[in-house]
Amino acid sequence: MRAAEEKRYVGYGEALAYGLAAGGKSFVTTPTQSGYLSLFFTKVFGLPAGAVSFMMLLSGLWDAVNDPLIGSVVDKTRTGYGKLRPWLIIMPLPFAVFTVLLFGGPSFMSGVSSVGVRIVYMYVSYILWELSFTLADVPFNGMTTAISPLPQDRTRAISFSTFISGIVAGASQTLLLSLMDASEKGVWNVGLKTVFLLIGVIAAIFGGGLFSLAGIFTKERVVQSARQPSIKDSFKVLLHNKPLLLIVLSNMLMSAGGLYNVFTTYYFAEVVQLNSLKLLIDIPGGAVGIGTYPFIPAIKRRFDNKQLMIIHFISKAAIGIVCFLAGMRHYASKAVAVPVLMLLNIVISIVNTVKNIITTEMIGDTIDYMELETGERNEGVSFAVSSFFSKITGSVSTAIATAVLPIIGLSYKTVNGRQVAVKGSKTDFYIWMFYVLVPQIVNALGVIPFFWYNLTGKKLADIRSQLAQRREQLVAEISEAEETS
Question: How far is CA 14 from CA 19, 89, 216, 363, in A?
Answer without folding.
Answer: 9, 15, 10, 21
